[in-house]
Amino acid sequence: VDLDTARQELEEFIPHVKNISDSSVRKMAGRDLMRFKEFKKQGIAVKFGRFTQKENKQIRKNVEEFLELTGIDSAEKLLFTSRYPKDKYIIHRLKTEHQFWEKISEGIPRPWRLIYYRARKMFDPNNYKGRYTAEEKEQLKKYQALYGNDWKKISELMSRSNLSVAMKFSEIKSAINYGPWTEEETQKLMSAVKDVIRRKLITEDPSSLSSLEQSDRDLWIDREQLYQPLPWTEIETKVGSRYWRQCKQKWNSILTRKLTRGQKLYRGTNGLRTKITLIKRLYETKAEDASDVNWDEISNAIGDVPRAYVQTKFYRLKVSFVPLWKRRTFSEIIDYLYEKTLPDLEEKL
User: Fold this and answer.
1) Alpha carbon of residue 126 to chain centroid
2) Which of 124, 170, 175, 343 is the least crowded, having the fewest Cβ atoms under 10 Å away?
3) Domain count, the chain
4) Where in the numbering of this chain does the Myb-like domain appear (predicted)?
């Protein structure tokens, strides 16, 4: 399939394919297009977002079966081959001969690349290694001074994952303010968010530049744009005095206030109604995992609030009302909230 045709055919399954590089489109045409068409015949849509427990189990099964098929003795060797230079050639040959890309993505309606990254996260022994010691933090600062933001190299030196070392350095690189946000900090945050969204809009549609420059007022941004993942470490740098997670939380709180026009959704009868509506809507979805929930739809039902507000509300509900919630599945948590918590909330209201 030629590049233009591949892009057109993939657009049915991945609407943002026009923003994907030519080389990535070629890979997707080879690895994903036929799979997507097969899933379509079965009435299964291509998915994005968080992986479900069922998908994680399927990935684990696919990896274990591939190891058994090829005789490769560990998932780390299979997924982090560069860590084993002596075995590199034979592992690559086995992966090619036995069509690794096809086997690992079997039964999962997602782009191959996302499945591969998820598998790497699941099987990386350098993940989930607990808190950083004082010695590790000092080590991290020294390595960053030597190698800059080459997180792959630093992760190998520290036996931590790439994401872990990058985020930890972001957290410790400067003194962080944990007090209330000042007006100046809030303005810096809003300006930084506006800048990155403006840049994204212009990159996707250069013709929008003139219309953006015509107005001195706050940039009007489509609601959907506000929910896109933002480069929080870049925004953190622009704010200067806050850790990236603080910036994300503060932005979500600003967004909630702006979109709800100051309605007091958090307290009193409004707060109770919000909890009741949320539990009912989640129960009606019959979802088996949080990633199956259309959070935008639920946020609209509650009062045109950001999805982050709804997800935070759900987290607080399960922590506050569901005993041993960490041991329960998503659907078990929803059932408990519906059967046990909802009647009490309705009576209280």
Assistant:
1) 20
2) 175
3) 4
4) 124-172, 173-255
